[in-house]
Amino acid sequence: MILRLILKRLALSVPLLLGISVLTFAILHLAPGGPVLAQASLNPRISPDSVREMRQLYGLDEPVAAQYWKWLSRLARFDLGVSFKDRRPVSARVLEALPGTLLLSVLGFLIAYGVGVPLGAWSAARGGGALDHGITLLSFVAYSLPSFVLALALQSLLAASWGWLPISGMLSPWSAYQPWWRQLPDLLWHLVLPVTVTAFGSWVATAQFMRNSLLEALTQDYIRTARAKGLSQAAVLRRHALPNALLPLITLLGLQLPGLIGGSFIIESLFAWPGMGRLGYEAAINYDYPVVMGVAFMGALLTVLGNLLADVGYALIDPRVRY
Amino acid sequence: MPGPALSPRRAWLARAALAYLAALVLLALLAPWLAPADPASQDLGQILRPPSIAHWMGTDDLGRDVLSRMLYGGRVSLGVGTLAVALSALIGIGLGALAGGLGGWVDALIMRGVDVLLCMPTLFLVLTLIVFLGPGIFNVVLVIALTGWTDMARLVRAEILSLREREFALAARAAGATPLSVIRRHLLPNAMGPVYVAVTFGVSGAILMESGLSFLGLGVQPPTASWGSILSAGRDYISNGWWLILFPSLAICSTMLAIYLAGDWVRAASDPKRQ
Predict the structure, then answer these.
(1) pTM of the model
(2) CA atoms within 13 A on the CB side of A241
(3) Chain B partners of A145 at a C-beta cutoff of 8 Å?
(4) What is the pLDDT of residue B2?
(5) What's the CA gap between B192 and B182, in Å, rounded?
(6) Is A12 on the interface with B (CB under 8 A)?
(7) pLDDT category, B21, cuts 50, 70, 90?
(8) I want to staple B17 with a disulfide (CB 3.0 to 4.6 A). Which of A184, B53, B144, B261 is the partner?
(9) How far is B149 from B177, CA to CA, in rounded Å?
């Protein structure tokens, strides 16, 4: 049953992946060697060599249909060319940057949900009061505080001025050649600031979403039935309202995922965190086109995969969706 | 993304926010007359000076007057934000109305395109486009507009779908109006309420994106200032140049907050259920 559903969702993501290949193909044509060659020749940061290489790599001298076919077959093999900078395959560089990004986003996500869901549920169950106002106020703050401002503020206060936490990086220089069990505390220490910034953007939204979802669930008929048969408030909440209120959170996850991955650009480059975001950023400022394209493609793949998992998770938890 | 709603008691907050935004726009427009110095003129004898009588917001790493740069930077930040949202609203409303109003393969094509765009993390897409197009103010506007229209299109499409079978639309069709003119003259005008809200919130999103891009060095190029690029210069001086971080941060955050409050007011005003 579930297997059929997974296959069905997989089939649905094929047109999406094709769409992504068309979109990235279109973007390629904006590049030097493409139709805007004149512009590139004016840009001193792009060497004639890289223009020639772009032409060859993406087959830009061939007819458009042949170019697209070449691009598609390359993507299917995850062959994204070699980096202009160090001549290594782009796929290898992207894959080795992936764990760093996943570590940061998964931890940030877990903390955002771990803090946001209980807070939102509590504030809905209590109905109004200081916590409710607090969450509203905080959501104003979260809305108007961009991640790079928050990151800079935390870096300059907690790290640079008071020296409580490391400013950036993944490990201290001293721990580079230590065994993993001595590196772990150092890694966690370095994770505090970037994970805080990653989680900050989404935990307030999660709390608010959870609050509204639970408030909505509490107005349903089955809650009245549960109360009518004499269940305590706690039992009504735990057994009837919460499970139903938690379901839409899976949808929220799918919606937040691109933002979480996209945010890694700014957070990783600010905290010098070795991940896809920083790889993409460094490639961007050096006009390392194949790497930029590889990172963008991987970001899209991760989003499609995440949505797929969210769909399947939804079906596993909610029997109504299974069909 | 719209969040909490303000209670009507807090209407004064929305008014204060609108007044603040108006003041910001005025400051930006009058920058050439208000700025104490040329925002690009360097004074290498006055590098990284903290705020003083001569330089209210201090000087940056090239001895430029930060206040003047903030005023001129406001022109860029607010201007790029507004222009980009105007463009993306145009695209989004147009495509959304076509998708909702015509249905069929037009709808399918446009909405599948939206699905694909939504798969790309926005910042990845924006950065990739910028790298391939090259940085600069014009390209920043273009890229933000090209990547930001999907929400608007979905919104307009949903509104139009809900209006399409209503009596006035049927009447217009029965009277022989062409599909396009039904969309333009009858459906779209009635679908605009939520669009105003989305546009207002969209401006803050676009300002945020511009400052993010300029912060990363891929937005406006030196010597042009924007709030994001001033903040970006502060990155290297987090321990000895707090004013390079504080003032642009305050400008960005307060603008976002003011737009949020104003947007909430627009939402209340355009929603008859809340009046």
Answers:
(1) 0.84
(2) 28
(3) 253, 256
(4) 43
(5) 15
(6) no
(7) very high
(8) B261
(9) 28
**Which of B61, B76, B74, B70 shows the shortest CA–CA distance to B37?**
B70
Which helix (H) or strand (E) is B29 found in, with range?
A: helix B11-29
- Rounded CA-CA distance B100/A164 in Å is 55
Tokens 């790029």 map to which residue?
B80
d(CA B44, CA B49): 11
CB contacts of B123 in chain A (<8 Å) are: 262-263, 265-266
Q: Residues A161-209: pLDDT tens digits? A: 777 778 777 777 777 777 777 778 788 888 888 999 988 878 888 888 8
Q: DSSP assignment of A67-135, as one string?
A: HHHHHHHHHHTT---B-TTT--BHHHHHHHHHHHHHHHHHHHHHHHHHHHHHHHHHHHHH-SHHHHHHH
Longest dimension (CA), chain A: 79
**Closest by Cβ to A143, choosing from B121, B134, B256:** B256
A59 close to B (CB below 8 A):
no
Q: Do B231 and A16 touch (CB under 8 A)?
A: no
Residue given tokens 């800079």 in the structure block: A152
The residue assigned the tokens 């105003």 is B196
| A119-131: pLDDT as tens digits | 888 888 876 677 7
Contact flag B260-A144 (C-beta cutoff 8 Å): yes
Chain B residues inside the 8 Å CB shell of A119: none
Residue A36's pLDDT is 43
Nearest CA in chain B to A298: B120
> What residue of A is the nearest CA neighbor of B2?
A143
The answer to whether A259 contacts chain B (CB < 8 Å) is yes
What ipTM does this complex have?
0.81
Query: Which of A263, A296, A304 has its CB closest to that of B125?
Result: A296
Is the pLDDT at B23 greater than 90, yes or no?
A: yes
**Six-digit token pair at A81?**
């060319």
Judged by a CB distance cut-off of 8 A, whether residue B138 touches chain A is no
Question: Residue A272 in contact with residue A278, Cβ under 8 Å?
Answer: yes
Q: What is the mean pLDDT of residues A57-84?
A: 80
What is the C-alpha separation between A322 and B223, in angstroms, rounded? 58
Domains of chain B: 16-28+64-274 (1.10.3720.10)
Only one residue has tokens 């370095």, namely A190
Put simply, the chain A residues between 211 and 240 with a CB less than 8 A from any chain B CB are none
Helix (H, G, I), strand (E, B), or coil: what is residue A161?
A: helix
